[in-house]
Amino acid sequence: MSHQTLKKTDFVSVMVCMDGRNIRPVLDYIEKHYGSEYPDFITDIGPNKVLAEKRAALNQDKKHFFDWVWSKFVIMYIRIRLSISVHKHHSKMFFIVGHDHCAGNPAHKATQIKHLKEARKTVENFGFKKQIVLLWAEEIEKTGKWIIAEEIE
After folding, report:
1. d(C-alpha 118, C-alpha 56), whole Å
2. DSSP states of the chain
3. Domain 11-152 carries which CATH code?
4. 42-66 pLDDT, tens per residue?
5. d(Cα 64, Cα 128) in Å, to the nearest integer?
6. CA 51, 24, 132, 152 torsion: positive or negative?
7. Would you say residue 91 has pLDDT above 70?
8. What are 95-122's pLDDT values in tens digits?
9. Nearest alpha-carbon partner for 4 in 46, 36, 26, 27
10. What would the mean pLDDT of 19-32 be, rounded to a whole number?
11. Predicted structure pTM score
12. Where are the domains of the chain?
């Protein structure tokens, strides 16, 4: 996979779970493979699931009004934070991260990867015209050490 080379001071936007086990591996990976040391973190519970499933919910009818309103709110809140990152920090690219053992998205890896791909579609529809990289984080064999195991195509 071809990596966009960024300056150390370039900002990127990272949609990542609030689970703190992911933060250091994400920082290390982005710095090592892309060069940026300045991520704007947009945290949520299982953001790959939020962006994937809430996208579907936005297209449903309004018979479950509360769920529809909440879905719309969460998506718009993520979009607003991305907008601030792009317009104020001039974020150069976006990352969406899924991870193993996620409390907010307890699905298996294969399902979470589908969520990551759907999440990318949702973010592309925001219209920011930024490269979006999908990352998968996991624990190394129950050691407590977490890594970015792969980029998802």
Report:
1. 9
2. -PPPP--TT-EEEEEEES-GGGHHHHHHHHHHHH---EEEEEEESSHHHHHHHHHHHHTS-SSSHHHHHHHHHHHHHHHHHHHHHHHHH---EEEEEEETT-SS----HHHHHHHHHHHHHHHHTTT---EEEEEEEEESTTSS-EEEEEEE-
3. 3.40.1050
4. 998 889 998 998 655 555 666 666 6
5. 30
6. negative
7. yes
8. 999 999 999 899 999 999 999 999 999 9
9. 36
10. 93
11. 0.90
12. 11-152
Average pLDDT over residues 26-44: 95
Q: Which residue has the higher pLDDT, 3 or 90?
A: 90
Token pair for residue 89? 């920090």
What six digits make up the tokens of 73? 């709110």
Q: What are the CA-CA distances from residue 47 to residues 32, 87, 88, 102, 133 (Å)?
A: 23, 22, 22, 10, 14
Q: Which residue has the tokens 């899924």?
A: 98
Paired tokens of 44: 């949520």
